[in-house]
Amino acid sequence: MEDPTTTSDFERGRVEVKNTTCYMCACRCGVRVTLRDGEVRHIQGNPDHPLNHGVICAKGSSGIMKQVSPARLLKPLKRKAHAERGEAQFEEITWEEAFDTLTERLTKLRAEDPAKFALFTGRDQMQALTGLFAKQFGTPNYAAHGGFCSVNMAAGMIYTIGGSFWEFGGPDLDRAKVFVIFGTAEDHHSNPMKAALGKFKSRGGRVISINPIRTGYSAIADQWIPIRPGTDGAMILALIHELIKLGLYDREFLIQYSNAAELVIQSPDNDDHGLFMKSGKEAPDSCFDPQDRMWWDLEKNQPVPSRSEGVAPKLLGEYRLDDDTVVKPSFQLLKERVEDFTPEWAERITGVPAEVIRKLAHEMGVTARDHKIELPISWTDAWGKEHSSITGNPVAFHAMRGLAAHSNGFQTIRALSILMSILGTIDRPGGFRHRSPFPRPVPPCPKPPKSPADVAPNTPLEGLPLGWPASPEDLFVDEEGEAVRLDKGFSWEYPLSAHGLMHNAITNAWRGDPHKIDTLLLFMANMAWNSSMNTTEVRDMLKDKDENGDYKIPFLVVADAFASEMVAFADLVLPDTTYLERYDAMSMLDRPISEFDGPVDSVRIPVLPPKGQCKPFQEVLIEMGTRLGLPAFVNDKGQRKYRDYPDFIVNFETAPGSGVGFLAGWRGKNGEKMMRGEPNRNQWEMYKQHGCVFHQELPRAYQYMRNWNRGYLNWANHHGMIRYAEPISIHIYSEVLQQFRLAAQGKRPGRRPPERLRKRVETYFDPLPFYYEPLESQLLDTNKYPYHALTMRPMAMYHSWDSQNAWLRQIHTYNYMYVNPRVARECHFEDGDWIRVESQWGKIECMARLTEAVEPNTIWTWNAIGKASGAWGLSPDANESRQGFLLNHLISEELPAHDAGDHISNSDPVTGQAAWFDVRVNITRIAPPDSKLKSAPQFRPMGILPGMIAIKDKLRGYFAGGKKAIGVTTPKEK
Questions:
Q1: Which residues have C-beta within 8 Å of that of residue 520, sequence separation ≥ 6?
Q2: Which tens digit of pLDDT belongs to each residue from 509-551?
């Protein structure tokens, strides 16, 4: 859009430019907003921002249209007295009435049973605050979006190397020579990744993409390797097989910085089978990964304490102790594990030719071995040894939801982490590098509650709502070993569910399993549409009633900035602000935007006042925490502690006097301290003066090898990032997983899983990675459903939030199902035909487009472009609802009944990660619908909500004419 401003406009004060942090998507780029007469006229990238350096995409520049979106919610609403959920019939109320309603209801619940309140949030940027509110209220029923996004990525890597891709770490493309991408959508890390890839390729770097779909980053790859969805683990294990077979692994790195050389007891009949042999050295109680293991000394031919000076340990072999106990280095166990995982074996599973796998393994191994990087940086390791330089093996990787969103994703990502480790690429130049506040201990220290007794009336929760179990004793189960949380997180069903299972919350609440709830508060979570698996039935559950005529989920609160499909089902609607209208913090306590060279956090400072009666959800939580008298929000006298959210961000400390708060920059009374210091009342102003960003560059000696870097570990410990300044070893072999397996086998004291889950835990808690077919495929006839179905976010849109943006709609107005021509021939249809796509859970009808840029057994579409009729302020006959469609109708959040139970989540059995990408389908050509082109299923149109920005007369006339529906579906048949 042309910006008709002049120099005189600036001189007269009509135009001003403000910096803030964008939140169009999870990338969180810095933006510079031009206002004219108080209205947004132009949005551009902030060239001084360390994340995007001025680069901005269509999502960011189109933020203008978010401000004037007809979907904006502008007033608090409550459902009309005699209206039914889903009809979107509301009346305006004041904020005072909304707060009084919530205060009365939540006060009663907290006094009776805090677990009857559940708080689940979507892709918000303040999980430290929402989690704090849940803990202070006393409810364990809290989770954020991670469980249905990429918890497998976080958990699989953090339980292996202490860090993960995304905010926590990433590829060093400034120094890499080969870059391998697994399962990454074209918008992931968006602007920074695109800029880095441009530089990487311009200096001769080679990009290899392993993905069923060739779009986005895969489209510019030097080599695209199409792979069948859910089989990446088999390919990675075959790569490890080849690297070990060829000797192309970094032996010295593995010995010193992983547990590869540490001896594992091999006594299948004994209780210590699969545990590390201990040295007898006393380890501090505080140490989660004690340095009390043993190596096998090559010269003395006997076990010695690990990392003994001058010892050359064995990585391979089998050894017998004086008492006849057999021990093996964990690397030997890895070698044995992958012995049969040949490229030919992987080819049968993945569809990737064996020769391609061999060549890729050879390219990785030779590049890592023969193209080493050496930087003249002196550093001291955790054991006191001085090093004159830092070396690196320039093979970098990146992966995301394509690997994570499968029920075998945890072990796949464990395998990827081990592949990266045996190549010697962890936190070294040209490989994977951590971002503060990572690395963390393996596993990190925070733990969830441990028993029902940890939930008590009018008492903060004992433990954290989300955490990182290290053993069965850290699970949140009752005396029978059954789940306590509403989503069954941290139970024997999904023990390492670090982000919770938000995708199961509504179904479990509707069923009252494991318990009934009273009030469900959803923030920015479109659970009635694209954030839900099995969407049609979830919509029915939200309005289902018991035998008394009461809703099975009694009270539903929805906080959002826009009239999403979820809003129609709310009893109470709280209108949130847009990212240009509120304060926010990309905090080191939460999800910062750190760089490889040091910690970075940023703030969002409003460039506009809230529109209408919108109120930031952060302010809502601060107000409710104060009204409810939650200890973190009131003083000893029960009086308000924080004036508002900005005041909370400035003055909150993790512990009294800790000096650690949400923002790391300009702390201390006068802003003279960084990372740690007293609250500074001028902190927001100082961020504003510095472009809304704080960036501290660490000494070069602290920037690499951070798992084992004494200087960095001491620094991180001092600034509250880690609890103990101890080395963070790479877990090639996971004793944490073995502890759970031993419990399932009845070979350890303490907690054991219920009988129905013992085989499940024993199978999937393998201390070494392995491949297994996704759980859903194991329980259906794959001959009847031969094709895989996937979704992907388009680069120009981010879920539902952007596909209602007037400018972005011109890029993607509706979606197609993309199909390989081979599949079209098999199913007898052509490009542009209408097809019915059916899974065992449901069916959709949509238009097909043929493309060679997809693996032949896979079909795919864009995510969340399809809308329910009338939602998001769009006309009921908008293209998004008439021609667009949603793949979620084909997916279920639960597996078919089987030995483990009747209601087991369709998720990874280790972490509870939603298995979005496991669905299998068949395809049938159908006759095209009428001339209006109507996809299926269709739903009753959502009406105009009170207080929304005026919408086209066409929409008003549609409802004024008495039309009730443009096609009504019935519940799916089971």
A1: 118, 120, 505, 506, 509, 553, 555, 556, 557
A2: 999 999 999 999 999 999 999 999 999 999 999 999 999 999 9
